[in-house]
Each structure stands twice: as C-alpha cells, then as structure tokens.
Amino acid sequence: MDSIIIWNDIRDMKYKFDYQITALDLWKLSMCGVYSSIIGILNIIFTVAMLFITKAFWGDVNSFIKIIFIVGIGLFTVIQPAAIYIRAKRQVNAIPHDLQICFNDDGIHIKSKKQNSKLKWNVIKGISKKPGIIVIYTITKHGYILTDKVLGKQKEDFYSYVVSKINMRQS
To answer: 116-150 burial string, b = 16+ CB within 10 Å, else e?
Structure first.
C-alpha cells in the first residue's frame, strides 16, 4: 500500500482546490453515463415504444392499463432520474465538507480535518472531461469530480497537466 502516503505540506502544490461537489453534479455525471451507454439507448427505445403503444391503445384500455402506460412512460423520464438524484444526495452527504484536493508532480493530495493522504500518479486510472466536469478516476467508475466552478480559468491547463502525468506514467 505504498501508493497512499500521509502528507502535511501543501505549499509545493501546482493546483489546489476546495472540493465542492453537489448532488446535482453527481446526478449530471450519472445521467451522462447512463445516456451515453447501451442502457441509455435502450431506455430511449423503451420510452418511445411506450409512447406509441399508449397513443395507439389509450382509448381501448381500462384505467389499470392506463396507469401502467403512464408508469412505463415515466420510468426512464421521471422515476430513474429522481432515484439517481436521491442516490447522489446520499453520496454527497458522505463526503467531508472540508476536503481539499491538491496536485503536484508526486500525485494527488487529499486533505480534510480528520485525514490526509496522497495518491501517486501510478494508481490513477484515467481522466475524463464531461460537460462542466472533469473526473479523475482512481479505480474504474470511482474518482474525484472537479466542476468548472471549482476549476475556473485553470480548467484546460489543469486537464493538460493531469493528462501529461497519466501519460508519463504509462511511458
């Protein structure tokens, strides 16, 4: 476990950010993930099919079937996004509010009142730029989310810096 090291000094950091993630940020990231996958395509196909079926049979079915039609249409347009938002809210509540994330040539440094740690670049799995968000993956599907609001004008320089560190590790 030599990739996680306790650290104390943040003066030599190239980038320093107060980690500010909201449930809405996590929700957007999750929705991008869902709708950029085969599952998202199937969700859209199902919803469109339900709309056509509902239109074709609405006048010929009883109230119970109409309720099933409405639930079917709302499943991926209302219910799933609401469930994802509720999950995101729980996840955000579990993140310390005093978290600071810093970057230098040695790796990523995470600091809170209770704990300080460092992740060397060799454990970083990748980086992804989504609309309004950069995600630095520490393991598949898990990582640190930095929003445009947090990154500010440094976004492109920061992204290039992290990409260079990840690419350097792979060389």
So the answer is: bebbebeebeebeeeeebbbbeeeeeebbbbbeeb
SS3 at position 123: helix
Ramachandran sector of residue 132 (left: φ over 0; alpha: ψ -120 to 50; beta: rest)? left
Beta carbons within 8 Å of 74's beta carbon, 6+ residues apart: none
Q: 88 exposed, middle or buried (CB, 10 Å; 0-12, 13-18, 19+)? A: buried
Q: Which residues contact 93 (CB under 8 A, 6 or more apart)?
A: none
Q: What is the pLDDT of residues 35-73, one digit of tens each?
A: 999 999 999 999 999 999 999 999 999 999 999 999 999
Strand order in the sheet with 107-111: 4-5, 116-120, 107-111, 100-104, 15-18
Residue 19: pLDDT over 50: yes
User: pLDDT tens digits for 109-152?
Assistant: 999 888 888 899 989 999 999 889 999 998 777 889 999 999 99
For 61, phi then psi, to 5°, come to -115, 160
